[in-house]
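As agreed, record minuted below.
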Amino acid sequence: MGDTRSEWFGKQVDIFVNNGVIAFVGTVLESVPENAEIRDCSGLIAFPGFTDIFVHLCDPGLEHKETLETGAAAAAAGGYTRVLALPNTQPAIHNKSQVEYIVQKSKGLPAQVLPLGAITKNCEGKDLAEMYDMRHSGAVAFTDGTNPVQNPQIMLKALQYVKAFNGVIIQIPDEQNLSRHGLMHEGIVSTRLGLPGKADIAETLMLARDIELLRYTQSRLHVTGISTAASLELVRRAKNDGLKLTCSVTPYHLSFCDKDLLGYDTNLKVNPPLRTRVDVEALKAAVLDGTVDCIASHHLPHEWDAKTCEFEYAKYGMASLESCVGAVLQALPNISTQRIAELFSWQPSHIFNLPYHGLQAGSPTFVTLLNPGINSVYESATCFSKGMNHGFNGKPFKGKASTVFYN
């Protein structure tokens, strides 16, 4: 049992599910209906369903990259029962009708899809969107997604605005006036490859700005895609000061560094870029010590020709929903069951005020079964996502989310 808030945590139990609800959890199940399906899950760990807080499902308008249906199938295959969908669509999810479109169209899918509303209209960073209306229509948090808010006045107003309903702002810390023309991390490797670099100061400068805005407003901010050791220090100081700041990292920033780009692999062209090995080790330590609150896949699927081109012209991003859990377990082989539960189950629910569906009688069925010991090789050919940009293709994984039960 992997539910840290259950009396059965760490123990072997039977779980009986009836009509989408957990009817029993314990060691002695006295009676089972004759028509019940019995599954032997020996060696597996049952967790409250995993949640991914930063996923691009491309619907509406970009369905050639992904749809809600294929994205939800990919989420379930990756071990997730719930994902938060980015607003960077066409049109953007920036008003209540767009939020309601996602809510209605997502019914009946193999994983729950919840919309993230845009901070600004069309995610352009100019004028605030209708956040209050979107909140009441089902938006669980607010972000301009892959377009970080550059204007400090807009960011200040957004942080103040969401205080009225205890909302959360999500931001990738990236000062684009410094990073706009970079293709990878600025350093020795970028010089060797002859590629323009993105200095890590573009991340830390934006993060420091947003922390000061958070300090001024006393609102709630989640920064995602943290990629440098210096950023982690800023996060630690802010948390020590009592600010309502949380953060997440991606599976690929735990797994790859800038040296992995020596072969110009466009599937590893991501933003924020892959940093140095020193940064990677700092991120790993931060995940284990609790500085990092949760894992975000940053699933950004692309069609074949968006990546099969010169490095300069390739799109940023990686299809990572189905590889996220395995990549984290491979990068952190000594991670505890308790830490897995916190990163993938409890913290995402707690940070974004989502219902926490624990493994207890009466709870709806949001269950992820994890096999921590299995060795496998990630094969993109078997994936459900439409995305063709799988940076982990052919990589060995230890541990795999084997099954999910959603409703």
User: Anything to note?
Assistant: The mean pLDDT is 96. The longest strand covers residues 366-377. Residues 91 and 207 are 28 Å apart (CA to CA).
